[in-house]
Write a structure and sequence with these properties.
Helix content: 25-40%
CATH superfamily of the largest domain: HUPs
Distance between the termini: 29 Å
Shape: globular
Number of domains: 4
Largest sheet: 6 strands, antiparallel
Strand content: 5-15%
Strand order of the largest sheet: 2-3-1-9-8-10
Structural class: alpha+beta
Number of strands: 17
CATH architecture of the largest domain: 3-Layer(aba) Sandwich
Mean pLDDT: 91
Radius of gyration: 24 Å
């Protein structure tokens, strides 16, 4: 799905005429008759409403009807009146409206649905994909953002939402874009996090309802839905929620190479407990290896993908789901982050009630094996966000120390193969951002970290959907939906952690729907062995990328040091995340249209 949003301005006709024919399969108009919303999307991915001169479209997965939308639109007098619709409708969608010639365009909080914008013929034009805007104007790479994409753990807020193209901006978190009839534009905030004041007993019902309606928003669009069934609590829970709805369920899971992975056994029991679903298992003979295609050449121009190791697997899932009639495939992204109980959580409960939270702090310290020094850093007040961001810039090249990473976010780290010039570019970009005194996503550190992770997972989902688009499959993450995120944030902080229990909010909400063997487990699986085996078997491709590196040509990484890391007999675990980032960025640069990688700003 790709679309362009045009202002109610005379230039809109000119911009419309410049779009390729395939981008004009669907064309909706302002009340004035000028083109407004132009693009290509499946018929079941759009819900349209009209009332007098006003128009409203939801693109994606939404739990509403045209009649309900029209009734709401009839009460709208200006763009702010649409806040209520944006805050009440379940699902994950773009909201695009034209009210009195003024346009509102927004995505989801997670950015799984995102809005980008640029200036064309002196007016602001928006789109859900940068590739659509690239059809209308010349774009130049922003080297500093390319360098930022090499950081382990992703760039810190707000640098993680910046485009790698100088001419393109993204709409900031919790804001919508207003396109005025004179061609100007401005961003307006429409959402703020709720106060965490609901005890878990009261919050569980709201979280359950939000999750059920999130799944219903996908299943309501089709009689069949796909879902991961990894054996983990998150994706497995979604399968059981989907099974309670009137539709055909197709599940898929990747069998781990590690015979000791406990999630395979849980997944097997879950499959038996879902006899009416169709189950697909990818074993070692049918599953793509991790890093199977780091040298792929079909990534879109939006920006470096947030993952590359599992790209071939995502293609496999989309292809298989399409062959089974699935157009929407659910994944469990976001649940871990909504249940996070790390350093930011400890800080939040300590600031609210240090004495009352000592028992939980001691339990978390024991579970995470923190030193007394780390625990003290976690409970004392964090510095202002801008101060923390500037401090991170000064410590970018420090050796990763997972015990001491206490702050608003995981401390960003430079890969050891970055050049001195590349490192300085990242450092100055962060320092410049810190000088603007950016505000955190929430004044509560735990909420900031949860929301930052929601945004990162949204980017993963958006990238996966771009991969799935060639098979007409959309990847969906119900845990990232606005209403689900709100319900999770509303839980009282002291109730978010229970000693000896994993994800108490999820368990309280879905106990009875999801079997006890899923929730009562005490182990967690991982794909470490798959990662190392995939790396080993695909080293030749990685080394070829190193020898022909675009990042080396841009002066951002040192070929010799990168070659040395790839040639190491025993790979350093600390390099897994930065290696993923570097290979993803390298692969993306190789996929740019001919000549575009020379158009540096």
């Amino acid at each position: 799905m790709e679309f362009v949003v045009l202002p109610d301005h005379p230039v809109a006709d000119e911009v419309f005429s410049r779009l390729p024919a395939e981008y004009r399969k669907n064309t909706l108009h302002h009340h004035s008759g000028r083109p407004w919303l132009v693009g290509r999307w499946p018929a079941d991915a759009a819900i349209c409403a009209q009332s007098g001169p006003s128009r409203l479209v939801l693109l994606g997965s939404a739990r509403t009807t045209e009649q309900e939308l029209s009734a709401h639109l009839a009460k709208v007098r200006d763009l702010r009146d649409l806040d209520r619709a944006a805050q009440r409708i379940a699902g994950c969608f773009h909201l695009v409206a034209s009210v009195g010639g003024v346009v509102r365009a927004q995505g989801s909080l997670s950015t799984a649905r995102q809005i980008f914008h640029t200036s064309i013929a002196s007016v602001t034009v928006a789109a859900n994909r940068i590739s659509a805007l690239a059809e209308l104007r010349r774009l130049t790479l922003a080297e500093e953002q390319v360098a930022m994409s090499l950081l382990a753990y992703a760039p810190p807020w707000p640098l993680n939402e910046r485009s790698v193209w100088r001419e393109v901006d993204s709409v900031s978190f919790a804001h919508y874009l207003r396109l005025n009839p004179d061609g100007t534009a401005e961003a307006t905030r429409w959402w703020t996090p709720p106060e965490p004041d609901l005890p878990i007993a009261a919050a569980a019902g709201g979280f359950r309802e939000a999750l059920f309606t999130a799944v219903a928003a996908r299943s309501g669009m089709s009689s069949v839905i796909g879902a991961d069934l990894s054996g983990g609590m998150d994706s497995t829970s979604l399968c059981f929620v989907a099974a309670e709805q009137d539709l055909r369920l197709v599940t898929i899971r990747r069998q781990s190479m590690d015979p000791a992975n406990p999630e395979d056994a849980i997944a097997g029991r879950a499959m038996a407990a879902l006899p009416d679903a169709e189950h697909i298992v990818l074993d070692q003979g049918t599953a793509s290896l991790f890093y199977d295609s780091p040298d792929r050449d079909d990534l879109d121009v939006d920006g470096p993908p947030p993952f590359i190791a599992t790209m071939s697997h995502m293609v496999d899932v989309a292809r298989i789901m399409a062959s089974h009639g699935v157009s929407r495939h659910m994944q469990g992204h976001g649940s871990d982050e909504l249940a996070a109980t790390g350093a930011t959580y400890v800080n939040a409960i300590a600031q609210r009630d240090l004495i009352g939270s000592l028992r939980s702090i001691r339990a978390i310290r024991a579970m995470r094996r923190w030193s007394i020094g780390t625990t003290l850093r976690a409970v004392r007040p964090f510095p202002d966000y801008s101060v923390w961001l500037h401090r991170c810039a000064d410590e970018l090249d420090a050796r990763p120390n997972f015990e001491s990473q206490v702050g608003w976010e995981p401390t960003p780290r430079l890969p050891p193969w970055i050049t001195r010039e590349g490192a300085e570019l990242v450092r100055e970009t962060m320092r410049t951002a810190a000088k603007t005194h950016p505000q955190p996503l929430s004044p509560i550190p735990a909420h900031h970290e949860m929301l930052r992770s929601v945004v990162l997972n949204g980017a993963i989902t958006r990238c996966a959907s771009a991969v799935g688009a060639r098979f007409d499959v959309s990847f969906e993450a119900p845990f990232l939906d606005d209403r689900v995120v709100e319900a999770a944030l509303a839980v009282r902080l002291s109730d978010r952690y229970v000693t000896g229990r994993t994800k108490p909010v999820l368990v309280a909400a879905l106990r009875g729907t999801v079997p006890g063997f899923v929730f009562d487990r005490t182990t967690k699986g991982h794909f470490t062995l798959d990662t190392y085996v995939g790396r080993k078997r695909n080293l030749a491709k990685m080394r070829e990328m190193c020898e022909e590196s675009r990042l080396v040509a841009l002066g951002l990484i040192d070929r010799g040091r990168f070659r040395q890391v790839l040639s190491a007999i025993m790979p350093d675990a600390a390099n897994i995340n930065p290696l993923e980032s570097t290979l993803a960025c390298e692969a993306w640069l190789r996929c740019l249209p001919p000549g575009i990688d020379q158009r540096l700003g």
